[in-house]
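ok so i was messing around last nite and threw this chain in just to see what happens. nothing serious, just curious
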Amino acid sequence: MELLSDLLSVYAEGDFSFEGIVAEVQDLVYEYGLAFKNNREEIVEYYQKKKEIQKRKLAVLFILIMIFT
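result:
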């Protein structure tokens, strides 16, 4: 994939989805916003939720691997 613009030039190669990259960039921008606001309670709450979501994703992936192998 190659993306060229006035603000950004990107060349990427590998097994990934464009939607996944967009989601990661959105998360990164939100996390920087949290860091700038420096609201400890909001930061802790966000990362606790994110941690739970990651656990669920890993559990689903593990189940799918077990089913299809």
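not much to say yet. The mean pLDDT is 80.
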